[in-house]
Amino acid sequence: MSLVDRIDALLPQTQCEQCGYHGCRPYAAAIASGEAKINQCPPGGAAGIARLAALLDVPLLPLDPEHGIEKPRTLARIVEADCIGCTKCIQACPVDAIVGASKLMHTVMSDDCTGCELCVPACPVDCIALEPMPLTQVDDPMHADEARTHFQRREARLMREHARREAELAARKAEVAATTTPTNPVLAALARAKAKQQGKPQ
C-alpha cells in the first residue's frame, strides 16, 4: 500500500473539500508530497490529525481554523414539503446520496450521506436540514470505504459524460465544416465582374 493510500485510509471520506482539495484522495496526495499539512480536515478533527501525525511521525498540530472548525458530524435531510425539485443538491452531492428528478421531490439516502454539507448552500429554498450522524456511522471504516467508492464512481461518470459532450460537440463542428462550401476566390471574382457588368453594386 502506497503512502497516499495509507493517508487516505485515515481520512473521513466526507469529500467535503474543506481541506482545499477536490476530495480526500487529492488531499492525501498533497500531504504525501508535502504540499499540504495534516491539520486541514475539520471532519477528521483532532483525532484525525493525531492519526496522521502518528503515521507520518510528525508533530501534532491544532486544526487550522482557515479550513473550518471541528464539530459533530451530521447527515443532510431534505424537508420534502419545501423541495421544488431543482436538482441543485443532486448536482452538488459528491457521493450520489441524493435521489430525485427535475421538478420532483428529492430525498437523501442517509446510509450514503457523508455529511459534507455541500448540498446546503446549493439549495435555493433552504430546505435542507442537518441532523446528528449516528456515532456508529461516524467511526465505521466500512461507511468510509463505501463513501470513497461512491465518490470515485461519480467522478468516473462525470468524466465519461464530459468526454461524450466534447465528442458530440466536435462531431457537430465537423459536420458543419463538411457542409459549408468554402468560398472559391476565382468564382467570387467572376461573380463580382458579372455583377459590375449588370450595374449591380459590389
UniProtKB/TrEMBL annotation:
Pfam family, one: Fer4_21
Keyword terms of this UniProt record: 4Fe-4S, Cell inner membrane, Cell membrane, Electron transport, Iron, Iron-sulfur, Membrane, Metal-binding, Repeat, Translocase, Transport
Record domain 4Fe-4S: where: 1-58
Record bears the keyword Methyltransferase: no
4Fe-4S ferredoxin-type domain segment(s): 74-103, 104-133
Top-level lineage group: Bacteria
Protein name, UniProt field: RnfABCDGE type electron transport complex subunit B
Organism whose genome encodes this protein: Dyella kyungheensis
